[in-house]
Amino acid sequence: MAKTPSGKSGGGQPTGGKTPTGKNTSGRGQRDLKVKVKTARGRTLSSTRWLQRQLNDPYVKRAQAEGYRGRAAYKIMELDDKYRFLVPGARVVDLGAAPGGWCQVAVKRCNVLGEKPGKAQGTILGIDLQEMEPIAGCELHQLDFMEDDADLKVKSWLGGAADVVMSDMAASSSGHKQTDHLRIIALCEAAAYFAFDVLDDGGTFVAKVLAGGAEGELQKLLKQRFTKVANIKPPASRSDSSEKFVVATGFRATGDSTANR
Questions:
Q1: Catalytic residue check, 82
Q2: Residue 17: its pLDDT value, please?
């Protein structure tokens, strides 16, 4: 369930105020120097454009400077800044965790390494089909979360239930927009059912979806099991992508379907 390259951008470099790196700039006496990439033999025009966008993306540069494994780290930061689910002591499962940016953020915010004295220390599990490079404070497992006993394994590793299940997974692209939309919705629904099996009461489910018209059943499913379901496009998501995130809070283990109607 490895993540594909993120489909969104944080937009252009601001001319004033704070940049994504947190530095104040007036824009005076400065030039917005953009890297231009020439089309090379064997590289398609679309891949050249993607590479040029990556090289000029302020979130990519910020991730490199701050030691995160990808720009997606800032998406989960922005979601958590709004909904506050990565709290000290939280037990978190990251599905499709590779390359590990979301896990890195969760380790810090859930105080796994005890860097916040007096606060509870959380537990972070990263689950992916592929092997991942180690992350300090994070327990990584090579596992297909859709296996029959995957939920039992995860609960045993956690020593109980989870407080958060999050997923930045995306199905492999087919090049057909509607097909890709249906695939990622199906993947998100599978992640939701997994969350139903491992979440504790009051837990949170966060997952990436693609806007495209087939989200209705997923929304209905989540509203049956959570007290609140929100859809949000964080600033770190590229504006030219249909990517958005669903944040479902207040899990009801009893499955009461009368709420949120």
A1: no
A2: 41
